[in-house]
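re: ur question from earlier - yeah i can do the single chain one, its not a big deal. heres the input i used so u can compare w yours
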Amino acid sequence: MLRFTWERGLDHFNAHWPALVHAVRTIDTGLGAGWSLRVALPFEVDDHVDDALVVQTARRLAGIGVGIDLAPRVSGLRALNTTTAAAMHARLLPVLGAMMEQLSSSSSGVLLHLEPSAQQLTAAWTARRGEGVAAKLRGLSSTVAGMASAVWMARQGRRDLTELAHDLRALPWPVLATSPPPLLPLDTIAGSTALHWLLGCPEPSLWADDVDGALFGPTAALCFAPLWATVVGARDRVEQHRALTLWAARHREKSHAVCVGPLSALAGVDVDNAVYVSPAHLRQDVQAVRALGFTDITVTSLDGLVLGAGDVVRDDVDAWVAAVVDSGVSDVAAVAA
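and the output i got, formated as tokens:
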């Protein structure tokens, strides 16, 4: 399965429908046997202004044979964590119930982004990427300052997340949750796990007391190579790609799903230039995760694949589409050369 998220407003989706439908059909045709195409559409749980637009867009995609996932957001932000879980639980289920009456349950699903709050995430990254001792101390102090309340919210939020997961599993739609990225060096697994808890987004596959040892079921590791490179200061593309393959390989031990990207800026993530800048880089990373055996790949995002600066169609859109379509596994051995 290949899935694309949509990060811009859905008004952009419909405004660029001809270019998007061409890209989608090209990708769908080139996927090959055993692969299906899905698009995850954002919708607000706070208000229902765009509900009709979500349904309209979903139906247009379904009309060309593309499956749909609904990706809920709270106040414009996609992050589900111990801070937003209660609001998400209270407002998401009624909206999904209404959506199910209008969309086919056989081709629809839910995509949840289990991520830290933007404030805590920025603080943790500042601690990692700060230049000099003073900058690192400022980043660490920003993170530690909220730890006491974060510990309390983690306790409360675990209950909220568990209740949300329980109710979502009762629905006929499949649910996929993204797994938060490592916020500490990759060789400090225990420390990273603890930090995820304190930042409100515990790794869902570690909840062994839940069904099948996972909170929401399958999880997709957020293997965002450009973001990782920007945060930790990877020196070159080779280092960036190696970090992605290590990250993905570790997650492959417990899941068949992965998320690569981003191709466009993410709301609430205050990191500049943390996007793919070359179709060749995207091709390399998709090749790598396919070679590792991932069979559920999410690319963030379809709008970034097709649209560039100024929300206009990329001049080289065909090269970006080909980067996904041509990402077979035959030449993966040469990727890190």
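Residues 184 and 191 are 7 Å apart (CA to CA). not sure if urs matches, ping me
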